[in-house]
Write a structure and sequence with these properties.
Length: 211
């Protein structure tokens, strides 16, 4: 009759098993196949091994830590853990648009300062120079091809010069266009995950099995 004993071992002596120590892992389960039994037992410190003659054999097993799909294994030994990380979700207040991690508000407004204005030159004589108006938005001159997105607002300033056998008048107006404002969106995570910066983290104990 074949009898199998499975015992958690730290060390297994060659005396008890009739095999060299290099054949058995120092951490694992040894399967003892006793064919000619009742020749003795030995205390290993964490359990008893029963062995008989040189026909006794041992098979070492290794404890393996692993994670389910979508998780990464970290740590080592009994401190092993499984980690899942994904991008956080974002939400924005009503009447705003979400663009990635930002909430964008667009509204039409009129501005007038040194960085936002329309300057227009008029003349009352062919001797005086003139030219097309200049558009400035956020401190940058608006290209002619993009001026259709802006309109002329209230006149704020007018200066006339009489130096060209006539006169020229430079007038400054408000410039009106779509103002885009950005603010940080509110980050959040789905159930079971914790927010860490711009990521959602889930940490669980590692799974384990004997192989």
């Amino acid at each position: 009759m074949n009898i199998f004993y499975k015992i958690v071992l730290v060390t297994i002596s060659s005396f008890a098993l009739g095999v060299s120590a290099s054949q058995v892992s120092t951490s694992g389960i040894a399967e003892i196949n006793v064919r000619n039994y009742e020749t003795g037992t030995q205390n290993t410190g964490v359990g008893y091994v029963v062995a008989t003659s040189s026909s006794a054999s041992a098979v070492a097993k290794t404890l393996v830590y692993y994670c389910q799909s979508g998780f990464t294994l970290g740590g080592s030994g009994e401190s092993s853990y499984c980690l899942s990380s994904k991008q956080a979700n974002y939400r924005c207040p009503t009447n705003t648009k979400q663009q990635g991690a930002f909430c964008v508000t667009e509204r039409r407004e009129c501005r007038f300062d040194r960085n936002n204005k329309i300057s227009r030159v008029t003349r009352n004589s062919s001797n005086c120079g003139g030219g097309s108006p200049s558009y400035f938005w956020n401190g940058k001159e608006v290209p002619f091809s993009a001026r259709g997105a802006y309109t002329e607002g209230v006149k704020k300033k007018s200066v006339s010069y009489g130096t060209c056998k006539g006169s020229i008048t430079t007038s400054s107006f408000e410039i009106c266009g779509m103002a885009v404002k950005k603010q940080n969106a509110t980050a959040y995570c789905s159930s079971g995950y914790e927010l860490s910066g711009s990521s959602c983290i889930k940490k669980t104990a590692a799974l384990k099995k004997w192989v």
